[in-house]
Amino acid sequence: MKSVLYHEYEPNADLTETSDDVKCFLDNIKYSIGSKILLVGNVGNLGKRLRLLGAYVTILEDSHYEDVCYSLIHNENCNVVKGSLEFLPFEDGCFDKVIILDHFNHTNNCEKASSEIYRVLKRHGEVILEDLNLKNLKVKLKYFKHRVFGEQVNFNYPQEIFNIFSELDFDGTLKELHNQRYIYIGKLK
């Protein structure tokens, strides 16, 4: 179950805004030259792609210092900052977009993480969140395995993610992908 955002994203000029295709859904995310974007999680080479489009990309890396920093290897010309989603080391209102891939459910405190996202976004900024869908049996078993081994994972159902960000004054859209993944896109009012 690879992330749609960083593995399959290709611009599709022939699709319409009303298409049910996920790629069209992603094409509607507007990137402009000079936008400041924060990437969090398993970003693959998305930072490099956004950088080629003219955006300023910062990647939040929370792996251990002794690990190889894959974000640096796959995303040249992007800033990589050490930190955690619950305590973002950035000033208020400094990003136009925050994109979180396969990471939000691995935070210790989703409410704190969402309020930090709210804090670092500019007015009318966007949060784009893609993660595994707890409605899927394989995902539920994976969640159970993490819990049995004592890991801190807080898997949320897609509607719970929608509600968390709605309470913070985000106007959002939720798209479920075959009950395996979901994408939430919310714009700060």
UniProtKB/TrEMBL annotation:
Question: Mind telling me what this protein is named?
Answer: Methyltransferase domain-containing protein
One Pfam family name from the record? Methyltransf_11
Sorted keywords for this record are: Methyltransferase, Transferase
Residue stretches making up the Methyltransferase type domain:
49-128
UniProt keyword annotation of Chloroplast present: no
Biological process according to GO: methylation
The protein's matches in InterPro entries, at most eight in alphabetical order, are given as: Methyltransf_11, SAM-dependent_MTases_sf
Give one GO molecular function term. Answer: S-adenosylmethionine-dependent methyltransferase activity
